[in-house]
Amino acid sequence: MTKHGLDSIDRTLLSLLQENSRQSTAELARKLDLSRSTVQDRIARLEKDGVIQGYTVRLAVETQAAQIRAHVALTVEHRLVDHCVQALRSVPEVRTVFAATGPYSLLVLVGAPTTQRLDAIIDQLGKLPGVSRATAAIIMSVRLDRR
Fold first, then answer.
1. What is the pLDDT of residues 111-144, one digit of tens each?
2. Neighbouring C-beta atoms of residue 91, cutoff 10 Å
3. Of residues 139, 130, 132, 77, the one with CA closest to residue 109
4. What single-letter DSSP state applies at residue 68?
5. Threshold 0.70, pTM exceeds
6. Is the pLDDT of residue 2 over 70?
7. For the chain, which residues make up each domain, given as ranges?
């Protein structure tokens, strides 16, 4: 085990799950050359330890292309950052929120079906308490994605 509690089998298991989290335990066990119960135990431990925090759906590029996505950089008064993140949770079009260094406090990934809706969301984010500036950059295409 490493100091982070992950050994090479855990890292390989996590990589396999990131490729396809719907693989059966039996299939994972075959790929890892382990018993099914050992794989189940490892997954349970990784979930319990918070290494695996959930399972999600990754949309095909074609499906994502139906949405207009943008990165919105927010400058937020330091004492209100946590409050701002809570408010962002209630906006369904907000996909991801990153803490950032430099001139911005938060970088927000947003997806909307139309430019009009995206514009409204950017306006909404700019009006959140503590936000002094919201700057958006529309994503034209994905050139590399190593999720």
1. 998 999 999 999 999 999 999 999 999 999 888 8
2. 15
3. 139
4. E
5. no
6. no
7. 8-48, 61-138
- Residue 102 gets the label, from left (phi > 0), alpha (psi -120 to 50) or beta, of left
Helices first, then strands: H and E counts in the chain = 6, 4
Map tokens 């700019």 to a residue: 126
Phi, psi of 83 (to 5 degrees): -65, -40
CATH topology of domain 61-138: Alpha-Beta Plaits (3.30.70)
DSSP assignment string, 88-140: HHT-TTEEEEEE--TT-SEEEEEEESSHHHHHHHHHHHHTSTTEEEEEEEE--
Paired strand residues for 94: 110
